[in-house]
Amino acid sequence: MAKHIAYIGTYSKGEHGGIFRAQVDDETGKLEILDTTDVENPSHLALTPDGTHLYAASETGSFNGEDGGAAAALKVGEDGKLTLLNMVGTKGKSPCYVTTSYGGKFVYAANYSEGTATVYATDAQGRLKEDPMIVRHQGTGANPRRQEKPHVHITRVTPDGKYLAVCDLGIDAVVLYPLCAECGLDAARGSFVRTPDGDGPRHIEFSGDGKYAYVVTEMGCTVRAYAYEDGRMTFLSAKSTLPEGFDGQNIDAAIHFAPDGKTLTVSNRGDDSLALFDVEGGNMTLKQIVKVGGKTPREFAYTPNGKYVLVCNQDSGDITVLSVDPESGKLTLTADRYELPRPVCLIWKD
User: Fold this and answer.
1) pLDDT tier, 1 (very low <50, low <70, confident <90, very high otherwise)
2) Which residues, listed in sequence order, are joined to residue 233 by a DSSP beta bridge?
3) By C-alpha distance, which of 211, 219, 257 is closest to 241?
4) 30-65 pLDDT, tens per residue?
5) Predicted TM-score of the model (pTM)
6) Label partner for 84 (CA 20 to 30 A): which of 21, 25, 42, 236?
7) Adjacency order of strands within the sheet including 18-25
8) 217-271 pLDDT tens trace
9) For the sheet containing 106-111, what is the strand order?
């Protein structure tokens, strides 16, 4: 049976370890916790392309007596065990996302409460260097409660390796910054892709061939499809992630493709469901909306073989497991449930 190492980020406040290392059997979907690593509120995790280092966003309002959260650098052992190397402040509050350049030379963090992105250089051992670059957005949005200032929610390197896509919920924009081999990012040449007023772009996903981008809007509860080419995004279509006639409160969270590259999946917080779309370029067809069996699903992950989906349910404090129909790609909730302190992110070692 194939077993894979997974890393789970939580809002544990460091009281229960923070980052959980788990083993998942992708033939059964069964999960076993192996150990933990102490990092406070590691709400998002990212591995370098070579898998030798893991970086975590420590989502806090202060770090070492200064305003702002932090990012953590960890060494990944052959067995997947983590060793903390160092932590450096983001100089921005509530970092909620972290990613690396394709070569692993730079690390990019999104600071939700500050409306900034932090650009770290790394040293030869994978540690984060001090004095990172800060990219600061300006402006407001149509929603006075949620968009009173910029709120950067994701930093994602485009598939061509040329740009950093930054979704800013507060100003209804995706900003594409050219990457720089020497400094990490050219902050002076960002190009803005605007979304409808009040929608709040949160996360972005790309097609396997890199020709299309898909943006999930947190308050608009839609997926917006774009053609992508060399730092340019051209709008194609949009689809709701909610059941027809839904009249409750909901905000969207994460967006990912299934391993087959054809099923695009989004998590709904409020409806507490996953919305699945059949995708062909800019054409999206709603396939299914399925309850996840937990409260407030954030990130989720298909197992590498595509047979199961593990969902991190923040407010019910658990991970639930859904099975994937091999023919239709539709999901069915299983009875498996694993209690964890407010899990919000799960990534695979390989």
Assistant:
1) low
2) 228
3) 219
4) 999 999 999 999 999 999 999 999 999 999 989 999
5) 0.97
6) 25
7) 31-38, 18-25, 3-10, 343-348
8) 999 999 999 999 999 999 999 999 999 999 999 999 999 999 999 999 999 999 9
9) 95-100, 106-111, 116-121, 133-136
* pLDDT the model gives residue 14: 64
Which value, to the nearest 10 degrees, does the dihedral of the CA atoms of residues 191, 156, 275, 27 take?
160
Which residues lie below 8 Å from residue 124, measured CB to CB, with a gap of 6+? none
Place of tokens 């054409």: 283
Tokens of 342: 């407010």
List Cβ neighbours of 95 (8 Å cut-off, separation of 6 or more): 43, 44, 57, 58, 59, 68, 69, 70, 71, 109, 110, 111, 112, 118
Phi, psi for 189 (deg, rounded to 5): -125, 40
The model's confidence at residue 179, banded by pLDDT at 50, 70 and 90, is very high
Supply the mean pLDDT for the chain: 97
28 Cβ neighbours under 8 A, 6+ residues apart:
1
In the 3-class helix/strand/coil scheme, how is the chain assigned residue by residue?
CCEEEEEEEECCCCCCCEEEEEEEECCCCCEEEEEEEECCCEEEEEECCCCCEEEEEECCCEECCEECCEEEEEEECCCCCEEEEEEEECCCCCEEEEEECCCCCEEEEEECCCCEEEEEEECCCCCECCCCEEEECCCCCCCCCCCCCCCEEEEEECCCCCEEEEEECCCCEEEEEECCCCCCCCHHHCEEEECCCCCCEEEEEECCCCCEEEEEECCCCEEEEEEEECCEEEEEEEEECCCCCCCCCCEEEEEEECCCCCEEEEEEECCCEEEEEEEECCEEEEEEEEECCCCCEEEEEECCCCCEEEEEECCCCEEEEEEECCCCCCEEEEEEEEECCCEEEEEECC
State yes or no: pLDDT of 298 exceeds 80.
yes
Q: What is the dihedral of CA 293, 298, 225, 284, to 10 degrees?
A: -10
Lookup: tokens for 128:
């984060």
